Amino acid sequence: MPQLNPAPWFMIFMFTWAIFLTILPPKVMAHTFPNEPSPQGMTTPKTAPWNWPWH
Amino acid sequence: MTLSLFDQFSSPSFLGIPMILMALALPWLLIPTPTSRWLSNRVVSLQGWFIARFTNQLFLPLNVGGHKWAPLLASLMMFLLTLNMLGLMPYIFTPTTQLSLNLGLAVPLWLATVLIGMRNQPTHALGHFLPEGTPTALIPILIIIETISLFIRPLALGVRLTANLTAGHLLIHLISSAVFVLMPMMPAVAILTAVLLLLLTMLEVAVAMIQAYVFILLLSLYLQENV
């Protein structure tokens, strides 16, 4: 099984953690949520249609 | 040289450059970083909702001290989920089939949970070695068994992900080869095998998502025991 060849193991280990620690957390943490979590039991407001584009 | 079925898993290199660096660095183009706009687009909104709901669900059973792991486990979920799902497409290398990657993630994270438990609440952490209500005569053997099961955890975590993905890719390879070989000889059997391949591919999509989730879930359980 070629996965058991230990030659690239250290490089893969280092690079995985480098990507996992530098690229991903900024992407995940950049998501912001504008509203506070609301308690359940509130009536859902009726939504009005909007005429401006999605983005 | 003739290729064996396992050669699809050898860490690819081109002109001496290991291609796994590409496989690890490029998928994040599919996860756009949200800007400071109040109104985001569909992709960003969906990813944000997924991350928020997932992290909420995952951290419900954890004490507040463990909540500082939220960014790490959310990032790890996106990491594994993206790599697993992308690898299902033809000719795309799946880095999570590499035992080095999975053990490299599992061992440090498991060790972190164990060290946190041993440092902050050593009595409580060591108490996991002896379940309540054990008959006195069984205590020595049970402590040995619990110790072994503790140390097996990172190995199981890494090997579970590796084996599931490797086996899935191997099966897809085998069955698709069978479809091609059977097509000129027995077209009816080839069509049945193609239906089987379709079902298997749907299973592999599910396995890709579930195995990523199981990895994270087990890490959160190990954290729950220790924090």
TrEMBL record, chain B:
Main localization is mitochondrion
The record describes its membrane topology as:
Multi-pass membrane protein
Protein localization: Mitochondrion inner membrane
For this chain, one GO molecular function annotation is: proton-transporting ATP synthase activity, rotational mechanism
Q: Which reaction does it catalyse?
A: H(+)(in) = H(+)(out)
Q: PROSITE patterns under this entry?
A: ATPASE_A
InterPro entries attached to this UniProt entry: ATP_synth_F0_asu, ATP_synth_F0_asu_AS, ATP_synth_F0_asu_bact/mt, F0_ATP_A_sf
Q: Which GO terms describe its cellular component?
A: mitochondrial inner membrane; proton-transporting ATP synthase complex
Membrane-spanning regions, if any? 12-31, 72-92, 99-118, 138-159, 171-199, 205-223
What keywords does the record list, in alphabetical order? ATP synthesis, CF(0), Hydrogen ion transport, Ion transport, Membrane, Mitochondrion, Mitochondrion inner membrane, Transmembrane, Transmembrane helix, Transport
Mitochondrion recorded as keyword: yes
| Keyword match Phosphoprotein | no
Q: Which family does it belong to?
A: Belongs to the ATPase A chain family.
Question: Quaternary structure per UniProt?
Answer: Component of the ATP synthase complex composed at least of ATP5F1A/subunit alpha, ATP5F1B/subunit beta, ATP5MC1/subunit c (homooctomer), MT-ATP6/subunit a, MT-ATP8/subunit 8, ATP5ME/subunit e, ATP5MF/subunit f, ATP5MG/subunit g, ATP5MK/subunit k, ATP5MJ/subunit j, ATP5F1C/subunit gamma, ATP5F1D/subunit delta, ATP5F1E/subunit epsilon, ATP5PF/subunit F6, ATP5PB/subunit b, ATP5PD/subunit d, ATP5PO/subunit OSCP.
**Which NCBIfam families does the record associate with it?**
ATP_synt_6_or_A
What's this protein's name?
Answer: ATP synthase subunit a
Native species: Gadus morhua (Atlantic cod)
Query: What lineage is on file?
Result: Eukaryota, Metazoa, Chordata, Craniata, Vertebrata
